[in-house]
Design brief:
Elements: E1 22-26, E2 30-34, H1 45-61, E3 68-73, H2 80-91, E4 96-101, H3 108-122, E5 132-134, H4 143-155
Parallel strand pairs: 3-4, 4-5
Antiparallel strand pairs: 1-2
């Protein structure tokens, strides 16, 4: 959605099928890294633990990491696994922003309600709120805002 280029990253309708890291250089100015998901893969617990360990190492050891976008399906109330991951990011002082995806698939009030519930649950881990974006791949909702956020962060040469 961010690049406006369909088919750029490989995706699967079956959770856990996409297991690679995809690196993208955007306008020769910045990089975007798409990591495997951490939750709903229909794989063995051992393989899921390996994914999680690999992603954790990647996030902890990348010196040039400016921030992490946590993609959350806006159709659902806060999921324990999403809250655990965000809690881990906070605990490890990794800057992040929340991107609520698939906003076109439910009513706007339901999206707002789910975001509010997530923020309330997040208050258990943190005093402040991270940047939050609502997006849709289909309608391109949120694209301009996310790209503006990235541009501002780059101009200020700071982490989120």
């Amino acid at each position: 959605m961010l690049t406006n280029k369909s088919g750029l990253a490989r995706v699967s309708k079956t959770p856990g099928r996409t297991r690679e890291i995809n690196f993208f250089k955007i306008n020769e100015a910045w990089g975007l890294v798409d990591l495997p998901g951490y939750g709903y893969a229909k794989v063995s617990r051992e393989l899921r633990d390996q994914f999680n360990e690999f992603v954790s190492e990647y996030l902890l050891e990348r010196e040039n990491l400016c921030g992490t976008f946590v993609l959350i399906d806006s159709r659902h109330t806060p999921q324990k696994i999403d809250l655990q991951f965000v809690g881990w990011l906070i605990e490890n002082q990794i800057p992040f922003a929340l991107i609520f995806t698939k906003a076109d698939k439910i009513k706007p009030r339901a999206v707002e309600k789910h975001i509010k519930l997530f923020k309330e649950a997040l208050a258990e881990f943190s005093d402040g709120e991270p940047p939050v974006f609502t997006t849709s791949d289909k309608t391109r909702e949120g694209r301009k805002e996310v790209l503006g956020f990235i541009e501002t962060a780059m101009e200020q040469s700071q982490k989120f």
